[in-house]
Design a protein that fits this description.
It is a single chain. By secondary structure, this protein is α/β, with parallel strands linked by helices. It has ten helices and ten strands. The model has no long low-confidence stretch (mean pLDDT 89). It starts with a strand and ends with a helix. The protein has a single domain, classed as Rossmann fold (3-Layer(aba) Sandwich), CATH 3.40.50.300. 40% of the residues lie in helices and 23% in strands. Bound molecules: adenosine-5'-triphosphate and magnesium ion. The site of magnesium ion has 4 residues, from helix 1.
């Protein structure tokens, strides 16, 4: 079966800085892929290549068999309409209210009536625990609320493909679990194909069919959660332990003793 998202030998550098190097990833229809990786390893760059917001230096990304960077403008927009993207920084329209943000794609890209749009907007806001915030301006929202509005906007159109860039960062553990459940529900109800980038290992293991780990621009693992847990690669194991010691960091971390002293000093200063 042809994958819905096919990342083939993808390489991307910015000047001398190689960010992605020969990355291969396939996501099948209805599959939930979680991408893990340290900060600055190119996870967002990967999503931006899938969306056609960046052009690969080498290789390509195909969505439903169409090579993204070869598409004409209209074809690219057509493909993008099938994708709900939840940006890392929420990327809401500042001048619009919550309901205008969530309903934006519905107003622009569907023939739904105003009442139908209002109903879907309420439904999406309800899902992320933001009932009755419809009229608030973006500037009146907390960071976590903005993120949830961004999530509601991404799912409003019930897209076949969803790309989530750290949808739960900055959310409390309960809301993190809610977002994870919504992702699972979308998969069960609509057969959504998704890529989720997250630093939250608990939700990663809950929502993933497969987990990929990007390290120094390369995809060093891509397998079922069970296999990932058992993967002997030292970087995988260090990531799972969340330990500063190991090959993950380029520069060695301060020794644990120094950290303890720093905490002690801070305590005394208070
Ligand atoms: N448009 C750009 N121009 C130049 N450098 C860029 C650009 N976009 C990203 N980078 C660089 O590419 C690297 C990877 O960035 P990216 O945003 O993909 O990281 P990330 O894995 O998403 O990290 P985080 O977990 O912190 O979000 C970084 O070093 C960043 O500075
Ligand atoms: Mg990022």
């Amino acid at each position: 079966m042809e994958p819905v998202i096919d990342v083939v030998n993808l390489s991307k550098a910015f000047g001398p800085k190689v960010v992605l190097s020969n990355v291969n990833l396939q996501v099948q229809e209805g599959e939930s892929l979680v991408v893990l990786g340290g900060s600055g390893t190119g996870k967002t760059v990967l999503l931006r290549n899938i969306m056609g917001l960046l052009t690969p230096d080498q290789g390509h990304v195909a969505v439903e068999g169409r090579i993204i960077h070869q598409l004409k403008r209209e074809e690219l927009f057509e493909t993008r309409q099938k994708i709900g993207m939840c940006f890392q920084m929420a990327a809401l329209f500042d001048s619009m209210s919550v309901e205008e943000n969530v309903g934006f794609a519905l107003t622009r890209h569907t023939t739904m009536t105003r009442a139908q749009i209002a109903e879907r907007v309420d439904e999406c806001l309800g899902l992320v625990g933001l009932k009755d915030t419809n009229k608030l301006r973006t500037s009146e929202l907390s960071g976590g609320m903005k993120r949830r509005v961004g999530f509601a906007r991404a799912i409003a159109l019930k897209p076949k493909i969803l790309l989530f860039d750290e949808p739960t960062t900055g959310l409390d553990p309960v809301m993190t679990d809610v977002i994870g459940r919504i992702i699972l529900d979308l998969k069960a109800e609509l057969g959504v194909t998704s890529i989720t980038i997250t630093h939250d290992l608990k939700s990663a293991f809950e929502i993933a069919d497969r987990i990929a780990l990007i390290f120094r621009g390369e995809c060093i693992a891509c397998e079922s959660p069970d296999d990932f847990r058992k993967n002997p690669h030292p970087v995988v194991q260090q990531f799972l332990r969340g330990d500063a010691d190991g090959p993950f960091l380029q520069d060695p971390p301060p020794p644990k003793r120094a950290l303890a002293r720093a905490h002690h000093k801070q305590h005394i200063n208070i």
